[in-house]
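Dear H.,

Thanks for agreeing to be a second pair of eyes. The structure we're designing against is below in token form, covering all 395 positions.
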């Protein structure tokens, strides 16, 4: 049995980022850039009007002259001629600034009479209301560094530079196997001694919350042959396999034995923690295998604490154990020697331990927005003490 800290260290040492793939930018939300992207163009690509108004010579405005309007320049349709002193062109936001002219006076600051404009005399700086070519980024400059997480702004920025696709770390292919003869699909009638299968639903949803769609869910019973066969197929066909249940040492637990027979390297088995002590983590070729305890709260806790960080490392993320510290809202009795992950709820600036911390209690998880981590060496926690909090929503 190892400690939580040792287990996390082994996750970091074992999980590796997946080989990058080239993807259309519209498919890269929240993915990590695997290359440094350089701008192929100046942006904006030309001197651009920032406002609707008239493009003029600044000196004409200073002299308060009546200035001829000689044409117009809407966005996307540049004025072809050249403007001379004493002349202006009506211009619109986003339009290219015609040659020679140097300033845009906004339409609210002029009066128009007989084809001429006259400034209302408000101060106007030379170059006002013009976005200079390359002012946001110059051709050849770094647009986004390797390792950037592509948020909607980044995707828009890349599109604006005319870049259709980028190299990113892909999403791992994840397969879920559920073991247990007692499990029945929700929506069907329970027979005596049966319960509804819930782990695959929670795990699939947790995966989806971090942008990963499980490629397959297999429900198998407690059958040695089926366990081994499903595991062999899953390991050959995916980057990560999540097996729920059957990882303890009962007569009907076949996962451990099958993993051994399939020569999956045992990186750790059992962590001194509650919930989720009997968790297995192993590796075969490039596939990571998590044997998650069947108890629903244990399975989900282990997902957040170990599976999720591994998946994020594979996707090129670097900060995979985010945490914050908040005062606990009441005393909590704890004995030293065991690490606890408690379902918690943040309200205001405090965190509350929810009722129902048993390994099989998923009800409290339904209300939780975080896990409170109390390390092994910690004894009783006093109200107001700062505790380590791992957010489980919005990750
Ligand atoms: P196991 O790890 O297979 O010994 O299962 C531990 C406990 O979790 C037992 O009470 C199982 O019935 C329950 N359990 C196992 N798998 C699931 C599942 N997929 N959904 C809901 N409960 C489960
Ligand atoms: Mg079982």
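And this is the sequence the design step returned. I haven't edited it by hand at all.
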């Amino acid at each position: 049995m190892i400690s939580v800290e040792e287990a996390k260290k082994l996750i970091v040492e074992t999980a590796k980022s997946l080989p990058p793939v080239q993807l259309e930018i519209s498919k890269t939300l929240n993915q990590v850039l695997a290359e440094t992207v350089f701008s192929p163009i100046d942006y904006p690509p030309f001197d651009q009007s920032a406002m609707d108004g008239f493009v003029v010579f600044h000196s004409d405005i200073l002299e308060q002259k009546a200035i001829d309007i000689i044409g117009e320049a809407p966005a996307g349709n540049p004025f072809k001629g050249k403007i001379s002193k004493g002349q202006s062109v009506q211009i619109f936001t986003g339009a290219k600034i015609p040659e020679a002219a140097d300033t845009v006076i906004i339409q609210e600051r002029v009066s128009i009479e007989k084809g001429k404009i006259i400034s209302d005399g408000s101060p106007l700086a030379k170059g006002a209301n013009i976005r200079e070519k390359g002012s946001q980024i110059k051709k050849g400059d770094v647009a986004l560094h390797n390792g950037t997480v592509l948020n909607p702004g980044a995707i828009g920025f890349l599109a604006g530079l005319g870049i259709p696709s980028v190299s990113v770390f892909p999403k791992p292919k994840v397969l879920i196997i559920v073991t247990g003869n007692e499990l029945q699909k929700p929506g069907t009638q329970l027979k005596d001694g049966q319960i509804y299968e819930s782990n695959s639903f929670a795990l699939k949803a947790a995966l989806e919350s971090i942008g990963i769609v499980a490629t397959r869910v297999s429900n198998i019973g407690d059958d040695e042959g089926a366990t081994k066969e499903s595991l062999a197929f899953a390991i050959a066909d995916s980057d990560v396999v999540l097996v729920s249940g059957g990882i303890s040492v009962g007569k009907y637990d076949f996962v451990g034995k099958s993993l051994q027979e399939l020569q999956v390297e045992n990186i750790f088995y059992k962590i001194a923690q509650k919930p989720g002590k009997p968790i297995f983590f192993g590796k075969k070729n490039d596939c990571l295998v998590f044997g998650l305890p069947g108890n629903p709260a244990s399975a989900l806790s282990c997902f957040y604490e170990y599976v999720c960080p591994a998946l994020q490392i594979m996707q090129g993320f670097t900060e995979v154990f985010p945490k914050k510290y908040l005062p606990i809202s009441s005393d909590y009795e704890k004995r030293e020697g065991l690490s606890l992950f408690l379902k918690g709820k943040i309200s205001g600036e405090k965190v509350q331990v929810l009722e129902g911390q048993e390994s099989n209690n998923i009800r409290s998880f339904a209300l939780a927005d975080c896990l409170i981590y109390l390390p092994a060496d910690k004894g009783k926690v006093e109200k107001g003490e700062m505790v380590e909090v791992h957010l489980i929503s919005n990750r």
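Two observations from my side: The domain at 324-391 is CATH 2.40.340.10 (Beta-clip). The first helix runs from residue 4 to 14.

Warmly,
E.
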